[in-house]
Amino acid sequence: MVQGSRKSRTLRRAHRRTPGGKTVLCFKRRNPNSAKCSRCGAKLSGIPRKIPLKFKNIPKTKRNPARPYGGNLCSKCTRQVLIEKARSEEE
Ligand SMILES: [Zn+2]
Question: Is residue 17 part of a domain?
Answer without folding.
Answer: no
